């Protein structure tokens, strides 16, 4: 400790001697270690003053001897949860806190003070898989605001490049601001406006899964105040000549050094005005990682000196990252078998981003007899954890029924206890959670006949009650449409439960009915699929991550199952949150779609559905109706789709609305693209939700006529949520965008579209790396609430508003100029009644039609408020399915799917499936049995389905 003290004293004296206008202090005046009074900095007492933040991280600490002196070894082992082992000491009173607050209490404009963190370090165990970014020291302040008081005056900067860490002598070496410039931190007086409440000194060590131990040894901890009271008001010059090299996820910046009268001590790097890196004064480069592929960013750099003076920003440098590079793209074009195998392999290689909780991954590996002991241990731990979401119980039921033959007696006992901790009964819950509870309850009764649930029911009772509950939901779904239609997260969960019952239930009637329900789901997916994209409005689509759905990346949802059978115009590059680099993608442990790709799965979709899904020449207008919300209560959702072979527009409007479901995507425009995220959508602010998440279906009323959609908006009175947002992707799927006579027009390559507001709008830009509340100012600032792609957002605030969306095939016009000319010369938008009590908008469209929409009540029945050429849209005449391939009346007992002159008829009164060949073919058939595995195409051609 004495050697380090003398060294720092010499440094401080040298600094003072070179500062003009200052009197040198005596060389033998030792600086004060401000930590010495607060903790045992040299570990002379033989005890560690640090606390380990988690007992399950694999971390340990111990006092060791280095050259006869005590030191502290901090170690991380891979047997933990694959999180860093963090060791810290936090205190609320002491010399360092008092000195920091004394500086903060000085008048604003007083000289800033600098402090230096230093300690001795050696790498005492070298892992073969260290996680460099998580091997660091840091200081953290309590009561921070990141303005007057920073949270991390010494940020978490990796020490793995310091000579002390990389040295091979085996001895301890000093780490201070010469090797980690960020260890010199500045405290700027704020007149006492904000003081710190606590100080925390922490060390982190981390080794990746499967690696050998990593350890560092530290000693002689210290924080010293740089001596003197240098007053320097001259800022450095601005950095110049910024340059950059890019990859898909990073930008390597360089610049020409700044100059300063006393010397530059560091540089701060900004991405889109947010500070993202700091480097020392002798470094003129920085690597900015964790960026999104195919995304444009603006970078600037500023210099700072020892007195806290900062330079002007450098000239902005705009750079776009490279395209998304998949770890393992799917086979293309591939086959259903090879695509399904790829999805199964993806399931086995999921990332443990939230710890060892990936039930699907461990189950899939066990099914293929991989990493057996490790996965059994992980699953055993999971079965000893209670889950509050019912769909997790179904995932664990899959695990037990797929690989439970490998479980030990002790593990089976944990499984029994797990399933006994729930009540399998009627729930006032969402559609997928109700189905999860009922389907799991049935299988618990079947496979654990002597197990009583929390209500005391077991065996036959559980099976009977939950069979009735399941079939009640199935009847509602096949006659009134599933409530969570095309939901990127929840559609699959209901399907997941039906698939489990078809796979494992011992009741033939139950299996037959759930299979017919699954068949109808597949027919709808096939109808909406155009070569890799689902064209439809969506229910329960929560946030940007839930709206994305294309061959670059799609969620682990029902659309990835559809892709395995239908294919796409290009290779699928990524699936699930393990493959998504956005900070908002953080829950691979909740993704179970891969379990439906298990080679042992019995169910296969109907062959006519597969044939419809694979059609690449679709061109149609379709209408659908859904007659229930996610709570199971009656309401009407009228859906319209306009589809062309390479693009499509889908909208919806709600009537007889009950409850408060606000998670719809009412306007969805998708097109075929080689770039990511070919999607334009509208949203209306909803409470504290992040931008682009949720909607106001009662406040925004929408109608569609062919390729044209219009809408009116009326605020409920909430002045913080009266915004309409139009999200234009900026990842390359829009080739060109212009502003023409109030229109925002876009060329996507395969089609054109144009959007126009009744009231003025303001442009904003937000990337996944920006704070979630950058544009919409809410308390939702966590990265997981952010966007998953980059957007230019046209945002319009008004208590009453309206908009128009036009779309057209690129083949219709000679080019974007011709499309723009047609818009300005042939269309008109009458907004003279937008300020009425019930806002009204009249629009003369590109196709020559007059669309007239007046705001109406979502809780009432449809009236004469949506008119095309003076005639009200007859929503009451909409069928459950009315598409070129699918037909069913509302609440109808008969569903008919037709393709290439052949039809298959589903009778939900008698639960039979009948084939019809040709228009005049006599309908004949017999009830479908469990042997019906491959759908009905073969049976169609024989006249029956069996």
Describe it.
With 946 residues, the chain is an alpha+beta fold. It has three domains: 2-225, Sandwich (Jelly Rolls); 240-320, Sandwich (Immunoglobulin-like); 481-876, no CATH class. It has 17 helices and 45 strands. The chain has a 14-stranded antiparallel sheet with strand order 32-33-28-25-24-23-22-21-40-41-42-43-44-45.
Entry summary:
The protein is 21% helix and 28% strand.
Q: Supply the number of structural domains.
A: 3
**Would you count the extended β strands for me?**
45
Q: Measured on Cα atoms, how large is the radius of gyration?
A: 32 Å
The helicity comes to 10-25%
Question: What multimeric state do the chains show?
Answer: single chain
Average of per-residue pLDDT values:
92
Topology:
Blueprint: H1 2-18, E1 51-52, E2 59-66, E3 69-76, E4 85-91, H2 95-105, E5 113-125, E6 136-141, E7 154-158, H3 163-166, E8 173-175, E9 184-187, E10 199-205, E11 214-225, E12 240-246, E13 251-256, E14 264-271, E15 274-280, E16 285-288, E17 296-305, E18 317-320, H4 336-348, H5 359-367, H6 372-383, H7 390-403, H8 409-419, H9 431-447, H10 459-480, H11 490-504, H12 508-528, H13 544-547, E19 553-554, H14 558-566, E20 574-575, H15 607-613, E21 620-628, E22 634-644, E23 647-655, E24 667-671, E25 679-684, E26 700-705, E27 708-714, E28 723-729, E29 736-740, E30 743-747, E31 751-757, E32 762-766, E33 791-797, E34 800-809, H16 816-826, E35 828-830, E36 840-844, E37 850-854, E38 866-868, E39 871-872, E40 881-882, E41 886-888, E42 894-899, E43 902-907, E44 912-917, E45 924-926, H17 937-942
Parallel strand pairs: 19-20
Antiparallel strand pairs: 1-4, 2-3, 3-11, 4-10, 5-8, 5-9, 5-11, 6-7, 6-10, 12-13, 13-16, 14-15, 14-17, 17-18, 21-22, 21-40, 22-23, 23-24, 24-25, 25-28, 26-27, 27-34, 28-33, 29-30, 30-31, 31-34, 32-33, 35-36, 36-37, 37-38, 38-39, 40-41, 41-42, 42-43, 43-44, 44-45
Helix pairs in contact: 4-5, 4-14, 5-6, 5-7, 7-9, 7-11, 9-10, 9-11, 10-12, 11-12, 12-15
